Amino acid sequence: MKTKLLTLLMLPFLFMACQKTELTSYEENNKDAGTTKVVKVKDFNYCGDPLVATLTNSDETVVVGTVTVGNDENSLYVTYELTGDYWIDDAALYVGPADDVPGTLYGNGTGSFSPWNFPYKYFPWNPVQTKTFVVDLSTLEDCFLVVAYAYVQDVSTGDYYFIFGKNNNKTPGFYFDYCKQSCEEPTCETAFAYGYDLAHCFSEYGFNNWGWTNGELTPGTYDFELWAGAGQCDLSKGTLVGTLNIDYDGSIATVTYSMDAGFTLDETHLYIGNEPLPKKKNGQYTVAPGQYPYKHDDLNGVSSDTYVVDGLLGDIYVIGHAVACGIYPENSAGL
Predict the structure, then answer these.
(1) Dihedral class, residue 33 (left if φ above 0, else alpha if ψ from -120 to 50, else beta)
(2) Do 216 and 163 share a structural domain?
(3) Among residues of the chain, what percentage have pLDDT more than 70?
C-alpha cells in the first residue's frame, strides 16, 4: 500500500455537510494488459439532479474525466469516470463537515489537504477507470461537503497526476455545495395571487371556490404573494410558492409570475379588468380560471411567466391564477 501526503494549494471538489459512516462500492474486474477496467453493475436512479464536476489537476492543464455526485432515497453516490488513457491508481474521499476536513480551507476557493487522512480510501489491485463510493444517506445533514481525490496515471506516457473534482462555477475553486435531492414526486396545486389589503376572497361575491381578486389598483407597481392550496382563502392551510409582480402605467400592465425555489409553473391564467370578476359569454360573473381572458398552458415547469396586457383604462382588478408544481407539506389543503 502506497503512502502519500499531498498538500494542495487549490481546493478540490467540495460540498457542505455532515459525517458519513458507511461505505461500499460496486465494481467488477476485467483484466486487460495489466489494467483492471471497472464497470458499474448498478444503475443509480438519482433523485432530483446529480452534480457533475470535471476531474482535473490543480492548474487545470489536464482533464481526465468527471465525478458525479447524486443520491437516491438511501445512499449518496460519488462516481469517478475517467476517459481515454487515464486510469485511477488510487483514490480518497472526504465526507464530513467543512470544519473537519483534513487540511485547511481558504475563503478564496483554495486550500491545502492531506488526502490520505481522508476517511475513505481506495487502492485497486490494478488501475481502474470507474469507481463509485456509496455512503449511507441517513448519516448526512441536508447539505454537506465532499472532497474527491484521485492519483491518476496516463498509461500512454507513464505520467502521474494528482486529480480533484473541479467546481466549474467558481474561479478559482475546486468546490461547490451539494444538498440532498428530494425523492418525493412533485405534485401540482392551484395557486392564486394574494394582494394583502387589496385582496377580496371569491366568497365575498357568493362563490364557494377559494381564490382572490385584487383591486382596485391605480397605476403603480405591486408585488403580491402567490399561495397554493389555501382553501377557503385561509393562508394557514396553504403554501407560499412565489410572487406576482404587476407594473401598471394606466394603459399597459406587465404581469410576471416568479416562483420560489422548489416550485415551477405548469399553467397560468390571468384576468385584468375594471370589474372585480370576469364574465362568461352569458354575462354572468365567474371565477373559473378557464374563463379568464389570458392563459398560458403547457408551460412544462418554467420558473417564471410574463403577460403584457394593453388597452386598459382607469383602476383595475387582477386575478392571477397558476398551477404550481413542487413538493408540498403534508398538511397542504390541495386543489
Answers:
(1) left
(2) no
(3) 81
